[in-house]
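Much of what follows relies on a compact textual record of a protein's fold. Here is one such record, which you should read through line by line:
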Amino acid sequence: MSNRMGVLAQVTKSLADKGLNLEAVIATVEGADAVIRMVTGDHQRTVDALREQRLEVQEARVVAAEVEHRPGLLREITEKLARQHIDLSYLYGTAAGDRCLIIFSSTNNDWAVKVLND
């Protein structure tokens, strides 16, 4: 969407008004556009809420991994994926206490899940 003052507030208000929880979110500016990537507890209701606001919605499959929060973990994950020639499109994450939530999109999400579970 066009990057304009208050667009993130508009999006988050729309979701909150519908009782939707954000599990992960990252908002960036790319040129004249705002890009908001998010994971919620109810995908379809989220899409419907955003479309009601006449916002452009692009859906993509991602991998969400809840993992132990410890030094070197992200290095281990990214090295495992690289060894299997899995290219990341984007990755973001956060940590709280002893747990981390990592969200990423790759060239082969299904294979990435198998690789990380081994």
